[in-house]
Amino acid sequence: MVYAKSRTLKRHFEGSPPRGNLEWKTVELPPFNNGEVLLQALLLAGDPYLGVAAKRLKEGDAMMRQQVVRTVESKNSAFPTGTMVVASSGWTTHSISDGKDLEKLPAEWPDILTTKQ
Asked: What class of enzyme is it (predicted)?
């Protein structure tokens, strides 16, 4: 059983979200199937246009953003355990993906971020 903490829209807002307009909710993820991967968030993107994007959501919906994630369990040979990818999973600590919209990062990531060229 895997639980994820997801950032959700509590109340709509203009500009930067005031304290209390977003909240963390704990949700139980379903078991993942053949061809799917269980992902764990490493970096979540918080963008300046968050308020504009949130207008399309209903109160209680998960905030949608890209994040850097690691495959922690895999039933998809294209994404073995430990693979680092970019996913549009929203603001959540864990998620399940079929791999179709995942973008692999270089195997040496994040070391390449600090290497001088």
From this structure: oxidoreductase
Angle 63-68-69 (CA atoms, 0-180°, nearest 5)?
Answer: 95
pLDDT surpassing 80 at residue 18: no
Model confidence pLDDT, tens digit, residues 40-90: 998 776 665 566 566 666 766 666 677 889 999 999 999 999 999 999 887
Residue 51's Cβ-count burial label (10 Å; 0-12, 13-18, 19+) is middle
Question: Is the Cα torsion angle 19, 2, 68, 51 positive or negative in sign?
Answer: negative
Residue 55 phi/psi, 5-degree rounding, is -60, -25
Q: Is the overall model pTM greater than 0.85, yes or no?
A: no
Give alpha helix (H) positions in the chain. Answer: 50-54
CA-CA distance, 74 to 60, in Å (whole number)? 29
Instruction: Compute the distance between CA of residue 53 and CA of residue 49 in angstroms, rounded to an integer.
Output: 6
Q: How many residues does the chain have?
A: 117
Q: If pLDDT is split at 50, 70 and 90, which confidence band does 9 have?
A: low
